[in-house]
Amino acid sequence: xxxLILINISGNDHPGVTATLSEILARHNADxxxxxxxxxxxxxxxxxxxxxxxxxxxxxxxxxxxxxxxLGVSVKFSPVKMSDYRNWVxxxxxxxxxxxxxxxxxxxxxxxxVSRVVADQELNIDAIRRLTGRMPIxxxxxxxxxxxxxxxxxxxxxxxxxxxDMQNAFMKIASEGEVDISLQEDTIYRRCRRLVCFDxxxxxxxxxxxxELADRAGVGPQVRDITERAMRGEIDFRQSFTERVALLKGLxxxxxxEIAEALPITEGVDRMxxxxxxxxxxxxxxxxxxxxxxxxxxxxxxxxxxxxxxLEIGPDDKLTGRYLGEIVDGKRKAELLKVMxxxxxxxxxxxxxxxxxxxxxxxxxxxGLGIAFHAKPKVKENAGQSISTVGLDGxxxxxxxxxxxxx
Length: 407
Known about the structure:
Elements: E1 2-12, H1 17-27, E2 31-40, E3 43-53, H2 54-71, E4 73-79, H3 82-90, E5 96-103, H4 108-120, E6 124-130, E7 150-157, H5 163-177, E8 180-185, E9 195-198, H6 209-217, H7 220-231, H8 237-246, H9 254-261, H10 269-278, E10 282-290, H11 291-301, E11 305-313, E12 319-324, H12 330-344, E13 351-355, H13 361-366, E14 369-373, H14 377-382, E15 385-387, H15 395-398, H16 403-406
Parallel strand pairs: 9-10, 9-13, 10-11, 13-14, 14-15
Antiparallel strand pairs: 1-3, 1-4, 2-3, 5-7, 5-8, 6-7, 11-12
Helix pairs in contact: 1-2, 4-5, 6-7, 7-8
């Protein structure tokens, strides 16, 4: 007669526990139907669901009981009904979701609120793992590194009662608690993203280049006012772009090099680009700014593509107040994203887009994963995911990278 037994082992972790216990199961020809193991601060949690003949089950449990005593760990045996096992098997194939929490500090309050939303949506948490490294703290409990990050990933199975309500609940928690929360369906495309496209101004760099140029031209306040209205989506980007470029007329070309060499780079760009290149991702800059500065970042960090706007320069090496070619606005960014996906031979669902302004929304909604980065309120409300608490390398956690792999 067949018996199903769930074996749970817990206690201080040390090498050889899994090997020793699985060898006992092997000697009695037990089949392992499910297995899981985790370690929290040197404390082991190990489970086997086995199928065995009732004639040897008592011997298996006796041997394991004696051996766990020798190993200094505890064991619990639970019989499993065949009907319960069949129900468990039939539940496989349900939609799986990945929920990622990232911030400077994650508290029990964050975990409690997120897990309550999951429970209210009648979903089940299969697994939780920490993606960031161990958090160093001083004797008084203070975090030693102010730039440190904490990230936890939950694997959740089932169909939400309301996907939009779930997403809205996470956005509310994020807005109240200094935490970013990503909700992604765990599909084959999530696991094989291949192209990441970035806005430049206020995303890869902590400034708007056109504002820097305007300051040098003595028209900073006028240009900044137009820039802010455009980023908030209050005026048409093409119109605003034409007006702002016109105000730069007469600025010497050499100023662009001075600005490029002093660009304030966003936290995490270097680390993010190192990992993405090492992992084989293609990267692109899709900017409503200027090609000169995009090419500077391409050379410095190794981006594969740059698409931006070209300023016209007169024979006197001064800006004419006009631009060359087609404006890279929101619509054009989305088109370029599709073109690059075709060029790379990948599905559009394998693409990622990152930006902060209203003109980034078309590419954010086109990409398989759209991330609003330290974005304006309108952009955060309409983007699928957002990062507001950490640097650009926070994107790596949305892709499932662990610090232990990265470093």
